[in-house]
C-alpha cells in the first residue's frame, strides 16, 4: 500500500517540462507587464490571466490527486469551469477588439460562448 502511494506521488511530481513551462509563463508574463508599463488595462489583463492560469493548473492538479468521488475532487471540478470561463472571456475580449470587422468580432464572441457552454455541459451535465 505504501509503495503504491509512493508511486502515485512520484507520478504526480512536477517534471522538468512542467517547471520549464511555468518558468516560461512567468518570464513571458513579467516581460508583458514590463512592456505595458503605463497601460493599466494591459497590466491587469496580463496579471489576471497569469493568476487565473496558476489557479486553474492548481485545481487540475488537485483534481488528479483526489480520490474518485471525494469532496476534494468535486471542489476542484467545480473550480475549473469558472476559471476557464474567465480566461475564455478575457481572451475573447482582447481578440475581438483586434478584429478588423464587427462580424469577425461577433464570431470570436460566438466561439467563446460555445466554448463556455460546452465546458459547462462536459463538467456538470450527467450523461
UniProtKB/TrEMBL annotation:
Entry superkingdom: Eukaryota
Keywords: Membrane, Transmembrane, Transmembrane helix
Membrane-spanning residues: 12-34, 40-58, 79-96, 102-125
Alphabetized InterPro entries for the sequence: DUF6490
Pfam families according to UniProt: DUF6490
Name under which the protein is recorded: Uncharacterized protein
Amino acid at each position: 500500500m505504501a509503495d503504491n502511494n509512493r508511486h502515485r506521488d512520484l507520478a504526480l511530481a512536477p517534471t522538468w517540462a512542467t517547471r520549464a513551462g511555468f518558468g516560461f509563463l512567468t518570464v513571458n508574463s513579467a516581460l508583458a507587464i514590463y512592456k505595458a508599463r503605463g497601460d493599466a488595462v494591459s497590466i491587469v489583463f496580463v496579471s489576471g490571466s497569469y493568476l487565473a492560469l496558476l489557479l486553474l493548473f492548481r485545481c487540475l492538479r488537485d483534481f488528479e490527486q483526489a480520490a474518485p468521488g471525494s469532496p476534494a475532487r468535486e471542489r476542484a471540478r467545480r473550480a475549473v469551469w469558472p476559471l476557464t470561463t474567465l480566461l475564455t472571456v478575457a481572451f475573447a475580449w482582447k481578440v475581438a477588439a483586434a478584429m478588423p470587422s464587427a462580424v469577425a468580432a461577433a464570431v470570436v464572441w460566438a466561439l467563446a460562448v460555445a466554448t463556455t457552454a460546452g465546458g459547462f455541459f462536459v463538467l456538470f451535465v450527467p450523461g
